[in-house]
Amino acid sequence: MKLSVNPNDKTPIYRQLYEQIASEVLSGTLSPGAPLPPIRTVSRELGVSMITVRSAWEALEHDGYLLTRAGSGCFVAPINETHRQSKVDERLSAAVGALVSDAKALGVDKETLLSMIEERF
Description:
CATH topology of the largest domain: Arc Repressor Mutant, subunit A
CATH superfamily of the largest domain: Winged helix-like DNA-binding domain superfamily/Winged helix DNA-binding domain
CATH class of the largest domain: Mainly Alpha
Radius of gyration: 17 Å
Number of helices: 5
Shape: globular
Number of strands: 2
CATH architecture of the largest domain: Orthogonal Bundle
Helix content: 55-70%
Low-confidence stretches: none
């Protein structure tokens, strides 16, 4: 797993880490039971605070993406298909909502927006 952060992005770094790992879990790139690298290692490799990485790991655990085993580390949690699809739908719905809001604010009509999506899909 290759994680990266962009300190110039308006998204907080812990959230950037969260989104990357959640996406890999939902897509199946990270399989249930797969270990995550230790917080200290990620912190050192990315040049960010251990508190930042710990915040991402805790949020991922809270949302059901990770399991922590004392003395063993963090592992990808098993996610049933219904739960996985619900999370995918939730994330896509938020992204589509933001896209539609931006398009409306910029005066882009529905047909133009759909055409742009079609071209890029």
